[in-house]
Amino acid sequence: MVNTSSPTFSIRVADECFEDYILNSEFTFTVTGYARVQIGEPVAHWHVDAVEPYLKNYGIDSEEFCDYRDAADSTVLVAWLDEQPVGHVVVSQHWNGFAHIDELAVDTGARRNGVARKLLDVAQFWSRKRGLPGITLETQNNNLEACRLYERYGFVVGGVDHLRYRAIDPATQETAIFWYLLFDVPGVDHCGKPL
């Protein structure tokens, strides 16, 4: 278990222990509802259609990102509290010129320690170091904690896709939300609108 009194925090490039960390971590979250995303409105103003709470797990595959660690245009970074891996971020340069967070996950036992925010900090550092104009990522309307985190961090909703998951489940209420963190882009405000 993580030492919560004053853990030592570090972020390292994923190594050969990444697969063990993934297999021994718990990344589920509780779904309590599906938000009706309103672009330009704070998450707190989104209407949420409540559902009977259930656990959601997207099933993280350590092999999926094995080539990202050593590539010039991507990386896999692991957060450590003391000597325990507790979270990770996979970031790459997207086809559109933005950095793209392909995955951000924190073990359930380490949440509420600022791990996700610190992983976002290092992803931002990685992106700025490469001169990219910002970061994009996708989450879903049933992961409200993630939506709140991204909003607090400064991301804004750039788009919503209601059909993205219909091939998996034709009756799904799950909606893809595309978030953007824009850096200092001349002539554009933090929401992506022209000045």
TrEMBL record:
N-acetyltransferase domain sequence ranges: 38-184
EC number(s) reported in the record: 2.3.1.-
PROSITE patterns: GNAT
Keywords: Acyltransferase, Transferase
GO molecular function: acyltransferase activity, transferring groups other than amino-acyl groups
This protein's record includes keyword Acyltransferase: yes
UniProt keyword annotation of Acyltransferase present: yes
Record InterPro entries: Acyl_CoA_acyltransferase, Bact_Acetyltransf, GNAT_dom, Streptothricin_AcTrfase
PANTHER family in the cross-refs: AMINOALKYLPHOSPHONATE N-ACETYLTRANSFERASE-RELATED, AMINOALKYLPHOSPHONATE N-ACETYLTRANSFERASE-RELATED-RELATED
Name of protein: Acetyltransferase
Organism annotation: Pseudomonas graminis
Lineage start: Bacteria, Pseudomonadati, Pseudomonadota, Gammaproteobacteria, Pseudomonadales
